[in-house]
Amino acid sequence: MLKRDSMIAALEDQSTVWDFIIIGGGATGVGVAVDAAARGYRTLLLEAHDFGKGTSSRSTKLVHGGVRYLQQGNISLVLDALKERGLMRQNAPHLVHDLAFIVPNYTWWEAPFYGIGMRVYDFLAGKHGFGPSRNLSCEKTLERIPTIETKGLRGGVIYYDGQFDDTRLLINLAQTAEERGAVLLNYVEVTGLIKKDDVIGGVTAVDRETGREHRIQGRVVISAAGVFTDTIRRMDSPETPSIISPSQGIHITLDRSFLPGDTAVLVPHTDDGRVLFAIPWRNHTLVGTTDTPIQQVELEPRALPEEIEFLLTHTARYLTKDPTESDVLSVFTGIRPLVAVQGESKTASLSRDHTLHISGSGLVTITGGKWTTYRKMAEDTVDQAAVVAELEPVPCITRELHIHGYTREDNPSSNLAVYGSDANRVAALCAQNAEWGALLHPELDVQAGEVVWAVREEAARTVEDFLGRRSRALFLNAHAAVEMAPKVASLMAAELGRDTSWVDAQVQAVTDLAQKYYMIR
């Protein structure tokens, strides 16, 4: 499990020379840590904030090949993603499951056009397919999605992709890496690169909780910093040109009544050229996403009014219940680390393939890609980084490596199902006393004991860590999350040995942060 105190002790051992030092604790960085540790390499990962604080917690919660990439003709990306989709379900079935999608048809040409397209999608998936696509009548479409807009409806095309909980999987990946011997630390920020004869041999870092500085030796340094990739690259070479062309995408969370049942809606082409998803997720309805080029990268980006209006307008076109701003329970914003392509200005057309770069001083940079292909990105990165580090080559084993929490037991109605094989232990902890067994808020199915578990076993260090990424409360219902904050802070303070001033500061920090997730209430 993720025990920060023991991992800090490993970091403080000055005699250690790490085989791999990884900068960044999102899907890419943690994926690299899993792969490297599984091969037996001494692996250290440092994250300046919390695991998944940035883009990796703000996805559309889909494990997919990418219907839009198929439309663009990027067959190689779709093939890779469909294969990786299958491996994710195989290795983490407690968090990755099939999800039926319907493309509603309103004109005569959509049924044959999308029907053929989805059959190509099925063909490319091959043995990794999640289910066969088929055309549906108007009546069958309404049976699956009773809230679909009926005016002009001719039917639909049903196909299957995957769904997951992005940050829950990330935490399980971090636990998997730790079980293989890796050391992973949140709230330790890399402040510089150590060089000797113009070759990188380690990093300087500071523990943001204590202020203690560290000089850490490593055979190779890997930057998996996502949207902050260019910041790390300029630690290596201040004049290096930017390779990231950031794009912002937002999602809104509505209650379940907007999309009852277990079927999602896909609109393949919206006004800005992106697809629109409406998805059932954790007893809510998730709608996204937008594509807005931005100039500045922020750790906590804010949704633009026009983005929210875009989603509300398009959702109203396809659902009979038209959402308004007062219906939005939460709005969250993520920034995509798109790799700039010369001559391209529209981010919707930029490549979602990953890019691997090795600088003259030996800095290995992995960026781009998407959640579904995290494992393949990690495999490619470790293969190349091992060469840079002059390490003995070891074959990748992650294609068949079960992720922590792996279980075939299916109990989707349980609020603890996302813990997989740990669910019984979490339930036992919650049962230790009445306080821990109680719900933290009547609108969200989260028990107080889960806070204790998050601190003891999942390296949660702040109230936001729990509300945002361990429980997902902030993403599901921002007002409810703020109302939960005082109780969460009290429970965490007891576990971490913090005082009342820490509790007050934590509650205020979450209250301030939630302003970016709020709409009208």
Draw up the topology in text.
Elements: H1 4-11, E1 17-23, H2 27-38, E2 43-47, E3 62-63, H3 67-72, H4 75-91, E4 97-105, H5 110-125, E5 134-136, H6 138-144, E6 155-163, H7 166-179, E7 183-186, E8 188-196, E9 199-207, E10 213-223, H8 229-236, E11 247-255, E12 263-267, E13 276-281, E14 284-288, E15 292-293, H9 305-318, E16 330-336, E17 354-358, E18 364-368, H10 374-388, H11 423-430, H12 434-437, E19 439-441, E20 444-447, H13 449-457, H14 463-470, H15 473-476, H16 478-496, H17 500-513
Parallel strand pairs: 1-2, 1-10, 2-7, 4-12, 10-18
Antiparallel strand pairs: 3-6, 4-6, 5-6, 8-9, 9-10, 11-14, 11-15, 11-16, 12-13, 13-14, 17-18, 19-20
Residues in helix, %: 25-40%
Number of domains: 3
User: In what range is the share of β-strand residues?
Assistant: 15-25%
Largest sheet: 10 strands, mixed
List segments where confidence is low: pLDDT < 50 over at least 5 consecutive residues. Answer: 343-350
**Mean pLDDT metric:** 93
Distance between the termini: 39 Å
CA-based gyration radius: 23 Å
Coarse structural class: alpha+beta
- CATH C-level class of the largest domain is Alpha Beta
CATH architecture assignment name of the largest domain: 3-Layer(bba) Sandwich
Structure annotation, total helices:
17
Query: Which fold name fills CATH's third level, the topology of the largest domain?
Result: FAD/NAD(P)-binding domain
CATH superfamily of the largest domain: FAD/NAD(P)-binding domain
Name the shape in a single word. Answer: globular
The number of distinct β-strands equals 20
